[in-house]
Amino acid sequence: MKKLAIFTAVLLTSVFSACGFYPYGEDVRFHFLNPKNFSYQSYSSFYYSVLSFEQNSEAVISNQDNEKLWRKYCDNKVLIADISTVLDSFSFSDIQGNSPNPFLHYLYSQKDIEAINYLKFAKNCEYFNTWQDDPWERNENTATAKRNDLLNKATILASKSKKVEFKKRYAFLALRLAFYNKEMKGIEKVYNQYFSVDKTNDIIDIWALYFKAISETNPALKNLYFAKVFAASPEKRFVSWQYFASQVPVADVLNLAKNKKEKANVLLLYGLYNPDKNLENIKQIYAENPNYDGLSFLLYRELGKLEDWVFTPYYSLFYTNDDYWGSDPENENVLKILERSDIDRQYAKDVLEFINSVDLSKVENPNFWKYARAELLLMTKNYSESLNQVAELEKVLPSENLLRNNVEIIKALNLFANQTYGNAKIPDAAKEIIIKNKDNKHFIFALGRELEYLGNTDDAALLYASLNHPSIGNEYYNNVYYKSLKNSNHTYDTYYYDYFDYLDAVYSPEQLQSFINEINGLSKNPDSFYRNFYSINQSEINSLYDLLGTKYIRQNKLNLALNTFNKLGENYFDAQYSLWERDGKDNYYSSSKVFDQNPFYHLKYTPDFIPEKEHFRVNKISVTKKLIEYLNKANNPKEKDRDYYYFLVANCYYNMSQYGNAWMMRRYSVSSAGNYSIREDNQEFNTAGLAKYYYGKAFENAQTYKFKALCLRMQGRCENYNYDFMGENTTNYSSQAGNYEDRRFEQNKYYQDLKNNYPDQYEDMMSGCESFKTYFKARR
């Protein structure tokens, strides 16, 4: 009997029209609570997550109540590990007097025949205590009959047993066998004979109550029993939660509770079923049983929720999972996301006020509650007071205490955030903490984001860059996904997990140059922190110079771009951007960085119509040089072929758009799904506006009708891209067909000009591209 989990991960089938991965939920959740640093492993199945609850073995392993009961039976003379080996791994035939196992050796040495016979009988029952005895149900009747036989033997042995502990153990086996045979009345009969709801002294009583709860027909009473089992047995917590009926009014169950402890147990399970704000429930439990570890765990869970609600949008700029399904993804705005974070900071303040009202001498773990206070103060941006609480904890927590590591993480976050804009740096007091936690990628990113928000983009970029190094575990499953403040709407590709892509999209050339200057000086920096934390290799630095030059291309600052590219030299670009040459095996290299054609003479999906007068190896540095050279010639009034050079320049700018063969001058990747970007040249890359301008300059300097018509034709093609970009096109077209113009002729002023002023050339120009060669040749 399984129940749907309350936090269900829903596939993004209806949100995006494009196929592929888009991070959400656990992919983007920010959290600093490390469960290993806290003492709530017995509740590990219920740690906060935006996904469903699931059984966690920690909850079982951390308790071992049955093993402890057996050890007590053996006068504490046997180790729990040896007992576990027999209970978990031994078969019926392994239980022999000559066994080297210390647990069995003790029982045989004591001639405890009753204990030995019980273990053998329990091993005989194991196969039948499961639903999986025969997945095809071919032997169902046989299994049922065998269970009935064992059940009858268990009840007989329980009645004949001389020791109370074995009476209960045999009776429990009978209960379990009755459950798997679906005999609810049998459960009631055995339970009433050997157990009592009011006497739950050991784990056997609790396990028996679990089956009693299953057979109970009163929904409120059933919930009460499961709450009692949940509180007492970590091993049974997950299944008790599954059976618990949260739709039963809590008041009905509380009315059946006999004391405050039972009320707290009930409230705990209802609290676990609440994915939203749970403060009122926590307050109720505190009023009933303040020393309850379940109360502390619910506070731990509430901190996990608040980390998601406050820190996920604040640091990643993604919606939290609970918000996402109610949002309009096409109009998602980062400012609205930050507003949501601020709203949840108010709830953090409410939880903080409750903690401030609590008598910490009454709670189960005062230091955890003080930690919670420190993190809530961070969430509410009361950094100074949070640091005071941290300092208090540092005085009482030894360095080897696991909780101290989480305290230090909160300390570092406070130190970073508690700075003024324009004066932020990596605080000295946080450097050792950063080194210690450099594999905690969400923590490191959060520190970088704090610096970025405060204007220190150099150190922010260094922290982001460090996320690229392999961390403990699988690096592919330890990514931080994030957005930029420049994101104004939700698009498929505007998230980042690589610092280079983020710098590519977000940093200005000035910011990037400053960062390059910093990393170039790291080796000479007297502060050992920078050398110990992360070192960027020369290959990465070269890539950053490449990016800097590319950013200047986007700004059309060609001389600055060329100066930057020259720092890398021809050899760098020969290796990176001239892979179109044969590799010696009659194959062409395949790379996103390949310049497959000369951008001055060739246009994609257009038959060649311009003879190549100059042949040169095509790469970023050579294209930039030639573009500057041709612009200088075109802009020279004394140049007799100005129209020619303007046309070549226009071709190059055209090819540097998403429609051309030199898009890699501006981008490191393109997508057939669309190339919307927050990069500053987004409109130019999608519309080829500079190409349209320089085709216009070629038109102004043209001397023949045919060449003027060709210039207008190319301007009209670019104008259509502008229509596409503005979302005004009404007719679908195939870009690979090479025919961009079979739509909206009436709205395209260049085509109208061509039609009205060059009627003799209009038909040739608009019927296709085959006449381009003739018209270009007619330039003179």
Automatic annotation (TrEMBL):
<feature type="signal peptide">
    <location>
        <begin position="1"/>
        <end position="20"/>
    </location>
</feature>
<protein>
    <recommendedName>
        <fullName>Tetratricopeptide repeat protein</fullName>
    </recommendedName>
</protein>
<keyword id="KW-0732">Signal</keyword>
